[in-house]
Amino acid sequence: MYAVKQPQANFTSPKHQSPLIDPALIRSAGQIYYTYCEVHPEVVGQPSGVAINRVNHRGKVIFTNQPVLLPEECFVPLSQIESYMY
To answer: pTM score > 0.90 for this model?
Structure first.
């Protein structure tokens, strides 16, 4: 039996398709986002989402389109937070 080396394909997800995120993380991200909006009403600018830790559900509101995440974090876009809340 012989193994044939095949070229590796780029398996990144398409831009229009968001990865599946745990509903509990989306709920926690929504709480973080809405708490931030209540505490900081003077902040101008549209956030892009929330970077949240998958283990302890602590997170931060993010204003950039390409956030840098720690290995245990995931990014929940604002559109997904808002669609989950309604």
So the answer is: no
Question: How many beta carbons lie within 10 A of that of residue 57, not counting itself?
Answer: 15
Average pLDDT over the chain, rounded to an integer: 83
Cα-based distances in Å from 14 to 11, 17, 53, 74 = 9, 5, 23, 17
Residue 32 confidence (pLDDT) above 70: yes
Pairwise CA distance, residues 19 & 53, whole Å: 16
DSSP-based three-state secondary structure for 10 = coil
Alpha-carbon Rg for the chain in angstroms = 17
Please determine, for residue 35, whether its predicted confidence score (pLDDT) is greater than 80. Answer: yes
Q: Which two tokens stand for residue 71?
A: 């290995």
| Residues recorded for the chain | 86
Q: Is the pLDDT of residue 55 over 80?
A: yes
Q: Which of 73, 79, 83 is nearest to 25 (CA)?
A: 73
